[in-house]
Design a protein that fits this description.
The chain is an all-alpha fold and 303 residues long. The longest helix has 22 residues.
Length: 303
């Protein structure tokens, strides 16, 4: 197949994979997967509490501290009406990331990190094989921790640990970096999650980190991102991208390894395509790639 055929087929393939996982916040998915265990009254209260956290997030982001505190007071009042033990833990695990975000906005990174860890430990306590969303809630809060490390100036440590961070979720062999419980790790290791599901969430983790680093005010951003992409391909999950990542400007390598169904995080796909020889060869190929990025990922390349 030529470049136009590969990109056309790939765009459809990617949209099909994304359709398997409709967009919704992972904490809402976590809540929806557990409310069946409570009665109708508590179920309504839990959804009211979740709505409260979304409102509180907006107040915190816009530094409306008084309204944020009012929102948290309302949350605590609703929390006091819950009687189901697991329901209380779930709602606490949803509350803590919001409090951590408020501290993050105030640049209190150390305390924010401690609170995020509290939510992760709750996930370990409430995990059941019937709700694998708890594993991805764990990933979401570990992503938030990684964002904290980047803002704290520890981006090198993040990059150094990236292969192990990825493979904990992909293979289920815990290195202690994601605070996965043994129960969660065994669930992954025993093949209970499809490759599609694992790649969906791990791709999200990688894309989010790349976006975070691109916003850093550093003269070395390009080198840092390249180091992160190299680290990603050192993982078992993405070893198939190693040659493509390092030599995408070589037409022979690109043609051999860039298949329509190759698994690549979307922002990494953008970097690989933009480094490829095809992107700089002529305006027709450049337009093909730009159109593909919009059609497959809704990513617009800045000119």
């Amino acid at each position: 197949m030529n470049l136009e055929q590969i990109l056309g087929k790939r765009a459809g393939y990617i949209r099909g994979k994304e359709a398997l996982f409709p967009s919704s916040h992972i904490l809402l998915s976590l809540l929806q997967g557990n409310v069946c265990a409570v009665d109708n009254e508590e179920r309504i209260i839990m959804y009211m509490m979740y709505a409260c956290t979304r409102e509180g997030l907006s107040f915190s982001r816009n530094r409306k501290d008084f309204l944020f505190q009012q929102c948290m007071n309302q949350y605590e009042n609703l929390e006091g009406r819950l009687s189901h033990t697991k329901g209380k833990l779930i709602m606490k695990s949803i509350e803590l990331p919001l409090r951590a975000f408020d501290l993050y906005v105030k640049k209190e990174y150390g305390l924010a990190g401690k609170i995020l860890l509290e939510s992760i430990f709750i996930y370990n306590e409430i995990f059941e094989p019937t709700n694998s969303d708890i594993i991805w809630a764990n990933l979401e809060q570990n992503l938030n921790l990684l964002r904290l490390y980047v803002d704290s100036g520890n981006v090198k440590q993040v990059i150094q640990n990236m292969p192990q961070i990825i493979d904990e979720y992909y293979i289920g062999i815990p290195h202690g970096l994601n605070n996965l419980s043994q129960k969660m790790a065994d669930y992954i290791k025993n093949g209970n999650l499809s490759s599609d599901e694992k790649y969906h969430y791990i791709n999200y983790l990688i894309d989010s980190l790349i976006k975070k680093i691109t916003k850093m005010k550093s003269e070395n951003n390009k080198e840092i991102i390249n180091s992160l992409l190299d680290a990603v391909t050192d993982s078992a999950a993405y070893t198939h991208l190693k040659l493509l990542n390092q030599n995408s400007n070589d037409d022979l390598v690109f043609n051999e390894y860039y298949f329509f169904d190759v698994v690549i995080p979307k922002v990494m796909d953008l970097f690989i395509l933009n480094k490829s020889g095809y992107y700089s060869q002529n305006s027709k190929n450049k337009k093909l790639i730009d159109d593909f990025l919009i059609n497959a990922y809704n990513l617009k390349v800045e000119s």
